[in-house]
Write a structure and sequence with these properties.
36% helix, transferase, alpha+beta, kinase, 348 residues, Kinase-like_dom_sf, 2 domains, Aminoglycoside 3'-phosphotransferase, Chain: A, domain 2, protein-ribulosamine 3-kinase activity, Phosphorylase Kinase, domain 1, Fructo-/Ketosamine-3-kinase
Length: 348
């Protein structure tokens, strides 16, 4: 067991605690782009009473300042709308002696997820929790002069190790074209070198397919022009099956809920709700029953007949992002999606 750095104890509000009462363990924990650990703090009680143990989850990285700021905001954006759906972020900042950066959150305990004895009969499902998140309008930007929600996010976030600037846009089509497709094309070429063929396809998709499928006067309206458009909602942003499980948030106001469906490692933004479904369908792991239950809460956006193509368009970003990060076979998956969508919606 290692001591807990004072900067982290300060972030948790334990400035004056005996350092021997706080320990840090890195055993059995992991995260793809940072180091992780479990903090245990023993809180002194009145004389004669047992000490109270509190647990927290820690991430550290030598260059994680912006990444942890984004995850801090992402976790709390979700937790503010659906308490208990993800761990709440409690603090982030610089480690002592400029040794890197940290993020500390509530501790998500997976140890009893296979046991039915701690299940709560009142616990909502993943589909229900996701449905609540996606049916709640996102807040307006912090610096907004009005109460109008926009597409974007107050801070940059990271999907894997890809920086997403998340600049705000009034138009969802403009956000998706510029802040996702054209952004990741630039990032891919920075990491993998110029790729004229990929650039041509991504540019055509952003300039032709996106306005056709996601245009402001199209998305959210049926074939007769009836509808109310769409509104921005908070999305997790990286919801593959590896970022969802069943667990219990230790020591939170929701800990009495028992084991429940939870999510973590978000890369949030204010988006069209179906954007979430792209990566959910890319890797599988979520059964049809989940999507059926989800759409009983959040109906498919009009035009419904274009639903599958929209989800493929959203899946495209994650193929391109994985190509930017890992290279290899993800390029062919992206090319296949773009060729199909351009053939259907991007001619002329």
């Amino acid at each position: 067991m290692a001591p807990v750095p004072q900067s982290i104890l300060r972030a948790l509000g334990f400035c004056s605690i005996d350092p021997s009462k706080a320990t840090l363990s890195t055993s059995g924990l992991g995260s793809g782009f940072s180091n992780t650990g479990r903090i245990r703090i023993s809180i002194p009680r009145e004389k004669g009473e047992r000490e109270e143990e509190r647990q927290y989850f820690l991430k550290t990285s030598p260059d994680g300042k912006e990444m942890f700021q984004g995850e801090f905001a992402s976790l709390n954006a979700i937790a503010d709308i659906v308490p208990g759906f993800c761990p709440r972020a409690l603090g982030w900042g610089a480690l002592d002696e400029k040794k890197g950066w940290f993020l500390v959150t509530e501790f998500l305990d997976f140890s009893g997820r296979s046991s039915s004895t701690t299940e709560s009969k009142g616990t909502t499902s993943l589909a229900q929790r996701l449905g609540k998140l996606h049916s709640t309008p996102a807040p307006p930007p912090p610096s907004s002069e009005d109460d109008q929600s926009k597409y974007g996010f107050p801070v940059p976030t990271y999907c894997g190790n890809t920086r997403q600037p998340n600049n705000f846009h009034n138009s969802w089509a403009e956000f998706y074209a510029n802040e996702r497709l054209l952004m990741i094309l630039k990032e891919s070429e920075r990491k993998n070198g110029p790729d004229a063929g990929l650039r041509d396809l991504v540019t055509k998709t952003a300039e032709r397919v996106v306005p056709r499928l996601l245009g402001d006067n199209h998305l959210g309206y049926d074939r007769n022009g009836k509808g109310d458009g769409i509104v921005p909602v908070v999305v997790h942003g990286d919801l593959w099956s590896g970022n969802a499980s069943r667990g219990q948030i230790a020591g939170s106001d929701n800990s009495n809920d028992g084991i429940a469906d939870v999510v973590y490692d978000p890369s949030a933004c204010y988006a069209h709700n179906e954007y979430e479904l792209g990566i959910m369908q890319m890797f599988g792991g979520f059964g049809r029953a989940l999507f059926d239950e989800y759409h009983s809460i959040v109906p498919k956006t009009e035009p419904v007949e274009e639903y599958e193509d929209r989800v493929k368009l959203y899946e495209l970003y994650h193929h391109l992002n994985h190509h930017a990060i890992f290279g290899g076979g993800y390029r062919s998956g992206a090319v296949s999606i773009m060729n199909k969508l351009i053939s259907e919606y991007g001619r002329g």
